[in-house]
Design a protein that fits this description.
The chain has 224 residues and is an alpha/beta fold. It is built from 6 helices and 8 strands. The chain has one domain: Alpha/Beta hydrolase fold, catalytic domain (Rossmann fold, 3-Layer(aba) Sandwich), CATH 3.40.50. The longest helix is centred in the middle third of the chain and has 17 residues.
Length: 224
């Protein structure tokens, strides 16, 4: 069973995080980085899936300094609130909290720590791979900031997942930008999948794309 814990950030602030230990012999740790909607039921379910796959999984709540325990519905009001909090959260602060989650997992016995992120978290997963030490592998799902940061070089094996039908992220342009600077990074584009295809909300979920992207991510993490 998962539980909400607290982790001390580099500035001493204790943010909340949803944590679930591995169900099977542990393969390592996974940091699950949230969408703009906070640590909602979809992110908690994703933490559970990683735990069932053999990973000690934790999702840091990156907005806690501004609104403790924020979650939002996937409607226009929730999207507006989530975007406002994402914009109010400095990228460097989010990355230091991700680093604190990395240190938490390592202190609890994870010999390798991987990162997976979705939407807002997909951008942060890419930046964490490029800017943080001690990350074994990273999987970035439909992050809107990946294209602008494509010239950065990941420090660990990294993959990117994009939906062909994502109206906010030009998948082919992102793929070209990433592979121009980092030809060794696989950028997978899923036909028929839109933004948030891994999220199980009915309006976004694409089971075929989600299953294939998870399979590819698991292969990456297990090889790290």
């Amino acid at each position: 069973m998962g539980e909400t814990i607290r982790i001390a950030g580099a500035d001493g602030f204790e943010f909340s995080a949803y944590h679930e230990p591995s169900f099977t012999p542990r393969k390592g740790g996974v940091i699950v980085i949230q969408e703009i909607f906070g640590i909602d039921r979809h992110i908690r379910a994703d933490v559970g899936r990683w735990a069932k796959a053999g990973y000690d999984a934790v999702a840091p709540s990156l907005y806690d300094r501004r609104e403790w325990g924020f979650t939002a519905e996937h409607d226009p009001a929730g999207m507006q609130a989530g975007i406002a909090l994402a914009r109010a959260t400095p990228i460097e602060q989010a990355l230091t909290d991700i680093a604190a989650a990395r240190d938490f997992l390592k202190a609890h016995g994870a010999q390798k720590v991987c990162v997976v992120g979705y939407c807002y978290g997909g951008s942060l997963a890419w930046l964490a791979a490029c800017q943080l030490d001690g990350i074994a592998a990273a999987s970035s799902y439909y992050g809107s900031m990946v294209q602008a940061n494509a010239a950065l070089t990941p420090k660990c094996p990294t993959i990117v997942h994009l939906g062909r039908a994502d109206h906010g992220i030009p998948a082919d342009e992102v793929q070209r930008a990433v592979q121009t600077h980092n030809p060794g990074v696989a950028v997978h584009i899923y036909d028929g999948a839109g933004h948030g295809f891994n999220n199980e909300s009915p309006e976004r979920y694409n089971a075929e794309a989600a299953d294939l992207a998870r399979h590819r991510t698991l292969e990456l993490f297990e090889a790290a």
